[in-house]
Design goal:
three-stranded antiparallel beta sheet; alpha+beta; single chain; 383 residues
Length: 383
Amino acid sequence: MMREFLKQRVLDAGRLALQKVEQYNPGLAQRLRQEAKQILGRPAAVNPAPVAAPPVASEPPRAEVKPKIMEFEPATLPWLDKPEADIEGYVKGLGGAVENPEELIGQLRSWRDNGFVILPRAIEPELIDALLADVDELFTNCSKYSILINSESKGIRPARDFKPEDFTEHHSRVLDFHNNSIAGKRISLHPKLVKMLEHIFREPIVAMQSLTFTYGSEQTTHADYAYVVPRIPSHLAATWVALEDIKLEAGPLGYFPGSHHLPKFDFGNGIFLTPESTKNEFHFRDHLEAQCRKAGIERQIYLPKKGDVFVWHGSLAHQGSPQLTPGLTRKAFVTHYSTVRAYPYDRRQDGVEPKKHYLNGGVIYSNPKNPKEEDIFTRGGKV
C-alpha cells in the first residue's frame, strides 16, 4: 500500500511539472508525456533471459557530443546588454522624435540595471474592457471554440472540451488569445509597448505568444529564457498587463531586480530545458533563489492598477506569489516578444512563411493551426 501511495505522489508531481512546461513549450511537454506513457506502460519482465555481453570492440564508436550552451552569444546580445551601451548618446541621437528624453533615459537605465520597465496607465480601460468581454464570451460559450486552454486538471485542450464552470479552476490560462481577439492584438502591439520594445532592441519586434490569466499562476521562481527560445535566445522580452487593480492577497507578480545579470542555470545539457535535460524547474528555482540571496537581491511585489504594464527582460527571475485569499482574481494579459530577425517563423509551423499582421510597427503571426478563429472576437476593433 505504501508503495502505491508513493507511486501516486510521484505521478502527481510529474503531471504538475508537465503542465508548467506546457505553458511555454507544448511540443516538449508532448514528447515528455509520450515518453512517460511508454515507460509506465512497459510491463516488467518475469525471469528475463540473460543477455549476452556484446563483443569488445577494438575502437568503440564515439557518441557525438554537442557543445553545451552556457551563456548567450556575446555578439548577438541586444545593445542594452552590452557593456558599451551609450544610453544618453542613443537618446540624444533621436532628437525631436522623443517627447521626454529624460524619461526615456531613465527607462532604458532601469532596463539595463534592473531588467524591467514599468509603464503606468499605458493601456486604455476601454480596450481592456473589450478584452475581458471577449474572455467572458469564450468561457460562457466555450463549446463553440477550438482556442487552447492550459488547465492543471486537463492539460492543454481546446475550449470545447471544457464546461463554463471549469474556468474557475486556478492556475489555468488561455493560450495565444491575441490570435483570436482583436483587443488582444491591440494590447500586445499597443503603440506604447511597441515603441518601448523598439528602443530596447533597436529592431522590429514580433509578439510571439500570449497568456491570459483570471487567477494568479503561483508559478515557482523562473526566468523565461529556459522555456521560450527564439533563434537568437537573447532576443526575448515580455509584458504583463494588469486587467484590473491587483491586490496582494490575489497572488501578484513577484520579481527580483537585477537578476538578469546572474549566471545562467545548467539543466545538465545547457541553459535550455529539453527532453535531454537532467535537471528540472525546481532545480532552476533553487538556483535562481540561491543566486539572488548571494547577490543580496530581494524579491519585490508588483501591485499595479488597471492598465499598468510591467515590461521585463527574458532573463529576469520572477514568480507568481502565493494566493492568500481563495477565489480572488488576478486578471492579467502576458505577451512574449522577440525581434523579427530572431523569430522569423511561427513556432507552431516552423520553417513556413507565416501570415503576418502589422500594427503600430510591430508584427503578429497568424495561428497556422486555427485560421478559422483568427480575430473571431471583434470588440477591440470598435474601441
